């Protein structure tokens, strides 16, 4: 569960990024975050990982109150939150397999369980046969599928995807959405910031619209609501 109450955040340069956010997201929901460029969507996501800290307000993520979180507890929070970005962010010199196993080795899993889990998540994204490839040898859509596999390898309760289809063609984007829905169907909360009108209007989910650091709309099975 995610709960944000009265979240305000101003960057050091004086830009007000969040201006009183109040929202609750239950475990297992699928939520689109929409809104104009610069509205505060990425900042909102960063708050959930404690990459940014609010000036005021209370945030609870996976039952942890982030305001009391000690520095040494931050890695535990992040293990329980998978992150997917528009630009994939794979490690270019590592194979597909290593990009994923690397995320698991950090939490001291046994070699056998790492192997099993890597192949399991590669199977889920349909890339078992590309385990030995390096990112440069993959298409954009395949790279994003690896990034998703890596993000869920630790079985996080929450997956945040920041414009996951932003660099992909429409057909590949639908494939990514199918995978995100499958992950959501296993009980993982998915929060996806997007500018894709087509996706939001076709695959109906909760829509939270942010403008100027404020939630201006929060609808069950909502519409994108902006011009393409
Ligand atoms: N590190 C930073 N330092 C200063 N200002 C920032 C920083 N990051 C973002 N901002 C500003 O904060 C505001 C919110 O930015 P944010 O990235 O959250 O918007 P966004 O809704 O994700 O935009 P986009 O859809 O373009 O990704 C913008 O005005 C942006 O310029």
From TrEMBL:
Main location: membrane
InterPro entries: AAA+_ATPase, ABC_transporter-like_ATP-bd, ABC_transporter-like_CS, ABC_transpr_LolD-like, Cell_div_FtsE, P-loop_NTPase
Keywords tagged on the record: ATP-binding, Cell cycle, Cell division, Cell membrane, Membrane, Nucleotide-binding, Transport
Gene Ontology BP terms: cell division
PROSITE patterns: ABC_TRANSPORTER_1, ABC_TRANSPORTER_2
One Pfam entry name: ABC_tran
Annotated compartments: Cell membrane
SMART domains noted in UniProt: AAA
Membrane topology category: Peripheral membrane protein
Domain ABC transporter as annotated: residue spans: 2-228
SUPFAM superfamilies membership: P-loop containing nucleoside triphosphate hydrolases
Entry GO terms, CC: plasma membrane
GO molecular-function terms, A-Z: ATP binding; ATP hydrolysis activity; transmembrane transporter activity
Subunit structure: Homodimer. Forms a membrane-associated complex with FtsX.
Membership in a protein family: Belongs to the ABC transporter superfamily.
PANTHER family, alphabetized: CELL DIVISION ATP-BINDING PROTEIN FTSE, IMPORT ATP-BINDING PROTEIN
Known function: Part of the ABC transporter FtsEX involved in cellular division.
Name the record gives this protein: Cell division ATP-binding protein FtsE
Taxonomic source organism: Gracilibacillus halophilus YIM-C55.5
Gene expressing this chain: ftsE
